[in-house]
Amino acid sequence: MRIVYQTKLSGVLETPTLDDYSVTAMKFAALCEGRTFFKGNMMKETFRETFSLLKRAGASVTQGIGGVSVDGAKDPKAALKVLFADEIAEFKNIILNSNKNFRGQEGQEAQDGRETLDGNEPHEENAEKTGEADTDEQNTAGEAADFDTSLAEYVFSLEHLYLNGNATESQLTAILAGNAVYKNKQTIHMELPLEYEDKFLTDAAAAGSLGVDAGLITSDIAYVSGENGFKHDSVITPAGDWRVAVFGLCCSAIGYDVRVSNVFASSPFTKTEEFVKPLSHMRLILNDGFDGEARFTGSEFKTPAVIDAQVARECLPYIVFLATQTEGTTEIVNVTEEILAMNNNAFYYTVAELKKLGAVFETRRKGSVFVRGRTVFEGGVGFNCHENFTLASVGVLATLCSRKSNVLGYVDCVEKTCPGFWRLFESIGGFSE
Fold it and tell me: Averaged over 394-410, what is the pLDDT?
């Protein structure tokens, strides 16, 4: 795809809303002990189906003017069975193949099987004492028949869960929910396609809006901290993809008259905060207007500045690009192996691709990268996006600052990650072929 340079961008970049985010957050809200209010239009068919599921799980759903309120189920563990029974049941084969710690329980199951063959019911006495012998009769409506409570308790008590690429999108959601219900802290080792990673990040944002800390450490390791469970009395506003907002803010920072909608809307834009805070060192001022619109203002887009890579994290490629357009030299510190590996090596590829356009980077000392500012990009090069949305949007920004058009390769990821991005780009005057 050829991106046309020197395009005059102007207008409001309307970030898209995420129905998946809202649906997932509603399921998590059913596992809370308090009330969660969802602002916005909740009349879509997708939401109505979700309301029915939440009610079967024991949650209360009330529709009113301006949104929907969800009161959590009285028994979160029983609600978890209804919402995610099938996904948790499927963990058994994954764990048997990948978690050595489960071997001991597998051996116990084999012992139980031998006792049954001998005519004895395993653990019968304990069942009578605890009143658990009639558990099957007490199953919650809608629960999968093969849901194993002991398996769920085991899965969400592990410090490390090894998925080996076998997890589905819905299972990742179940991981977030289960850890919050059982109040566990867990590291997840996985090898997932990019779209599953994006799904995990979307669900992690929904969990974050309700108080559960989760995210990707590297492209194959995730973490979940549900030690405090889901928080109570939350208000959630369905919001758009944070990367679209960051892209729009970058357009504003390099001098275009672009405002961005929904920037301050709930947790998907925690990444926007991650992007904005380091830029205070460059003396950029973020102003919010009416209806959540925002843009960078002020002419003092200057350095020298020091940016901490650990603070910027996933937004670092955008900050590196902006550093090439400022005055002076920007130093990026704490550039570790973890940062280099994050988001499929987006930082490493950003540096490599911007060098093609004439950007100057220096490594004067270990762990630091120096970026020379006020670089005028010649353009006329092939910009490899490496099937990464962040890198592709940086390529668009770099082309807008070039003297010639650039050709962006491997851009199929853009529509997969953010459907309608090119339409949004065109809505503010951008042009591509």
Answer: 93
